[in-house]
Amino acid sequence: MSAGPTESLVVDIVYELADARGVDPLSIPPLGDSVDVDALTTLLETSRDGPTELFSEATFSVGSDEVRVASDGSVAVNPHDTESTPRLHRSASD
């Protein structure tokens, strides 16, 4: 059985967080404690698969790290010192 879009995105985010922190992926707290992963997946899929891209990426905090997930599914993790507010980045095509 293959992972669905939500599970795949969660796995990608957890592995990126683990890599950035230099820890085992199993030590990462549940991602659902930081973000609504179903809503994130739906938002990015709707943006990617729709007639126009609504959002190019979403940014949220997981602990002391900033996570950016792009509509193409790429994930980037950057450490930061302050809590950030989840935000969406509109596409340049607006």
Describe the structure.
The protein has 94 residues and is α+β, with helices and mostly antiparallel strands. The chain has one domain. 32% of the residues lie in helices and 24% in strands. Strand 1 and strand 2 form a beta hairpin. Helix 1 packs across helix 2. The chain starts with a helix and ends with a strand. The mean pLDDT is 77. This is Halobacterial output domain-containing protein.
Structural class: alpha+beta
**Shape type:** globular
Side by side, the strands of the main sheet go 3-2-1-4
Quote the distance from N terminus to C terminus.
38 Å
> Largest sheet at a glance?
4 strands, antiparallel
Number of helices: 2
Average pLDDT confidence is 77
Number of strands: 4
Elements, N to C (H/E): HHEEEE
In terms of DSSP E residues, the strand content is: 15-25%
Low-confidence parts lasting 5 or more residues at pLDDT below 50?
A: none
What's the structural domain tally? 1
Radius of gyration: 13 Å
- Share of residues in helices: 25-40%
